[in-house]
Design a protein that fits this description.
Elements (H helix, E strand, L loop, with lengths): L2 H4 L4 H10 L2 H8 L10 E6 L9 H8 L5 E6 L6 H4 L1 H17 L1
Parallel strand pairs: 1-2
Length: 103
């Protein structure tokens, strides 16, 4: 099933494709377990992400338990927000740690 795609991708992109190809099926299989989640979740979504649909944050908000999820949508940020704006990531991790300690 992967062969036609392989013809057009570099070795690095091929590895990434093989890793991500089953992701939709895996996430769908995990979805019934999302309501049982008991740990804080930080989702940081760049609104200009060209690799992960920004509506991913909306989906998470609709399916994760209230009070556990903190979503931050960042205008002007793309897929590489982790490296381009690391302070946002650090702040989200620290907020989760504070939330966990106060629970």
């Amino acid at each position: 099933g992967y062969f036609p795609v392989r013809l057009f991708l570099s070795a690095g992109l091929w590895r990434a494709y093989r890793e991500l190809a089953p992701l939709r099926r895996q996430l769908k299989a995990m979805l019934p377990q999302w309501p049982n989640l008991r740990v804080p979740v930080a989702l940081i979504q760049g609104l200009d992400d060209d690799q992960v649909d920004p509506r991913t944050a909306d989906f998470a908000e609709a399916h994760l338990p209230a009070g556990l999820l903190r979503v931050r949508r960042v205008a002007g940020a793309g897929h590489w927000i982790l490296w381009q704006q690391p302070r946002i990531i650090v702040d989200a991790i620290l907020a989760m740690l504070r939330q966990t300690r106060s629970s």
